[in-house]
Amino acid sequence: MPKTILITGGCGFVGTNAADFYLNKRYRVVSFDNLSRPGAKQNLGWLKTRKGIFVFIKGDIRNEKELLGAFKKYRPDLVLHLAAQVTMVTSVENPREDFEVNALGTFNVLEAMRLTKCKAPAIYSSTNKVMGELLYVPVIEKKERYEYKNIKGVNENFPLDFHGPYGCSKGCGDQYWLDYARIFGLNTIVFRQSGIYGPHQFGIEEQGWLAWFCNALLFNKPVTIFGNGKQVRDVLYVDDLIRAYDSALKNIKKTRGKPYCIGGGSNYYLSIWELFKILEKISGKKFNYSFGPRRQGDQKIYISDINRIKKDFGWKPEVSPKEGIKKLYNWICQNKNLIKEAKVFK
Fold this sequence. Notes:
Elements (H helix, E strand, L loop, with lengths): L3 E5 L4 H12 L3 E6 L6 H8 L6 E5 L5 H11 L3 E4 L6 H6 L1 H21 L6 E6 L11 E3 L4 E3 L15 H21 L3 E6 L2 E2 L11 H10 L4 E4 L5 E3 L1 E2 H13 L1 H4 L3 E4 L6 E3 H12 L5 E4 L8 E2 L4 H7 L7 H14 L1 H7 L4
Parallel strand pairs: 1-2, 1-4, 2-3, 4-5, 5-8, 8-13, 9-12, 10-15, 11-16
Antiparallel strand pairs: 6-7, 11-14
Helix pairs in contact: 1-2, 3-5, 5-6, 7-10, 7-12, 10-12
């Protein structure tokens, strides 16, 4: 029997790419997903066409019995916990659901591992939102972007500062995930992710901003810029993220119980205006945009300091924003019908 990886949220954007990566490495891939996200059903259909041993479980991480059953039956060698409620907007509209998915759901995954004595290396996909607005970090406003005044990026030593229900729920999961390594001896790792993008991402206005702007441009939909468009994020192509997952899992003796800030870092970052320039050049089209008020809790700039991850297992991003965005836009062009089916436009 081949090794097994269990992926919660295994039909989401990152989960689908991770599933494909490990199918290619001849793992048995167990995907645990409730198919609630736009595009999840389309991703599931695609995964079923891949070669290898693919197992789908329609389940919800809020149901501890379903999770426990999956861990008992499949006894995974690796775990990726990617299932989540992923938007700040939704968390404000329904904070209870946000808490139950992100905080309680993550607790349920940890308990399933503890109760089944699962020692599999396990990654939790956290978020840069656990760092808060970073208002104490001096920022300079330039013509098309914000820049840090005194630092190159945010590292793991910065204080956590949960903002909004989403920040609180993801931060709760983040800290539980680390503590279960300390208290119960689980082999857990936290990735605080920034600006992940790539194929199989069905971006919506509230989440997945790179894919959302690609979708809007291709389908000639108007977009709203919340704020002045100078907001900056470091961006990371999903293939680079999955490579980092795999390296962290392989180096569990060094990575166990640690958080890692991960994104494109100080070389790969974009403002909204800079993204617009790249996409308009690729597509030969122009955005139809208007302005809205700045969103509550939205960081003016967030760039990950990726030095710890480089030091611990020698990873660095390889796909530049120009190259990665072109790949994403081409994937969306080739899958227009799937984008329509997923109903990403309200």
